[in-house]
């Protein structure tokens, strides 16, 4: 049996980070620490910079200022493979680069753990199949990804991240395209991963999913202003109304606030 030696889990943090959004002033620099066990929700209107932040955290875009660290080590000094063992990203949109089955796609998640040209082992395949099962897409494993529905494709993308098994999970609107049952299933899965010690950091447009499942919230405003902290402190109607420029009615359901847009 091949045993993959796991590196110790490292905490992703930002120091005075300014994301680079063309023609926008710097705004408020971000000093975030995304701790093991935490579930972060990033909220903000269209164009506020949520995707740009995720791509910056994933090392795909350079920040305008500031730095990113894993523990105390600047991420720029790490090899891409070592970084990908620690940090993984589910994109908002999924493009098919080349024809691949669902299982082949999930197995891409093992690449940071294999040497160049090393074939995936039976253990890697078993890991990918467990992830596909957790996302309820194992029955589709031999289908071409290009033939899947939007929600199925989204679940395959999350299963691919689960197969990658990084410490920090970055997810750009992971509930996009998902029906209600699968939205809840994904949020439960992320909660289980956080309980197991992973750090979860995701953009969401659904305030009520954030209120129910996230313990930390980052609010991003279109002018670059930002604030963050414990969910109960951040999810207050006045702040959210200003964030979305939308009046809200708030009720409490099962001990969590539930926000409904006012009609008028
Ligand atoms: N390459 C680019 N050139 C010019 N502007 C860009 C570029 N990339 C992003 N932007 C702009 O940066 C801003 C932030 O985009 P981003 O995708 O991060 O927002 P978002 O908060 O994720 O939005 P949404 O909720 O719509 O997904 C937007 O106004 C976008 O048009």
UniProtKB/TrEMBL annotation:
**Domain ABC transporter, chain residue ranges per copy:** 12-247
GO molecular function of the protein, one example? ATP binding
Alphabetically sorted, this entry's keywords are: ATP-binding, Nucleotide-binding
Family matches, as SMART domains: AAA
**Name the UniProt record assigns to this protein:** Iron complex transport system ATP-binding protein
